[in-house]
Amino acid sequence: MRPLFTLCNGLTLILASASPRRRQFLREWGLPFQVHSANVPEPRPASGETPNDYTRRSAVSKAHAVARDLASQATAPLHCIILAADTAVAVEGDILGKPDNPDHALYMLERLNGREHDVISAVCLLVPRNTVTKQPPVTVKADAFDHWLQLVFSNTSRVFFYRWPHSMLQAYILTGEPVDKAGAYAIQGQGAFLVERVEGSWSTVVGLPVTELACLLLHYGLIAPATPKP
After folding, report:
1. CA dist., res. 57 & res. 153, Å (int)
2. Is 221 left (phi over 0), alpha (psi -120 to 50) or beta?
3. pLDDT digit string, tens, across residues 3-51
4. Residue 146 known to be catalytic
5. How far apart are CA 98 and CA 129, in angstroms?
6. SS3 per-residue string spanning the chain
7. pTM of the predicted model as reported, rounded to 2 decimal places
8. 24 φ, ψ (degrees, to nearest 5)
């Protein structure tokens, strides 16, 4: 498969996630990257925190954890982009994280069954300051570390579940797939049958809003469309 994009300015891309789907998105773009998972626990939502704010805070926490790890290594690549992401499912303002056990997964699926809910995916990019020349838009937060500029965005999609009988929800739980999934389901896996329709970005529901990510990386000249080799 021919690459779609190339990294610019000799940059190295660090993916702060072990998610197979996020790795797949980057591979499909043809971008080389290294995986450096963030070794931080999933944060708990703060009192009164919105799902959008929570997801952004979690993505920032993962990016910062990897940045600290890299800074502690003598051979750490300084000319790198750190890409971290987090996804949350929210229904009636309640944030559904990953289930603690099969019973908890069943509780989540019963709450979502036959109704709509929001899926929010947030991205935090830590970009070397000397590679960014354009003024960030107001929706982008610029602080973080001395070496990096922090760019944060999020996207929300609305998902509608078909109303399934209790036996189908139990059968899905027995597959084991819901265990480590936000909201106890994976739209890109066996859980696809649960979803009647999606309003918004499918990739946001999977875990990485690729349209917004591509636009941001292109805007700042961090990637470029691949050109044919002479």
Report:
1. 11
2. left
3. 999 999 889 999 999 899 999 999 999 999 999 988 888 888 898 899 9
4. no
5. 35
6. CCCCEEECCCCEEEECCCCHHHHHHHHHHCCCCEECCCCCCCCCCCCCCCHHHHHHHHHHHHHHHHHHHHHCCCCCCCCEEEEEEEEEEEECCEEECCCCCHHHHHHHHHHHCCCEEEEEEEEEEEEEHHHCCCCCCCCCCCCCCCCEEEEEEEEEEEEEECCCCHHHHHHHHHCCHHHHCHHHCCCCCHHHHHEEEEECCHHHHHCCCHHHHHHHHHHCCCEEECCCCC
7. 0.90
8. -65, -40
Determine how many CB atoms are found less than 10 A away from the CB of residue 114: 11
Which structure tokens are listed for 9? 């300015």
For β-strands 12-15 and 80-91, DSSP reports them as parallel
Residue with tokens 């990294």: 7
Q: Which of 86, 94, 118, 146 is catalytic?
A: 86
pLDDT tens digits for range 46-57: 988 999 999 999
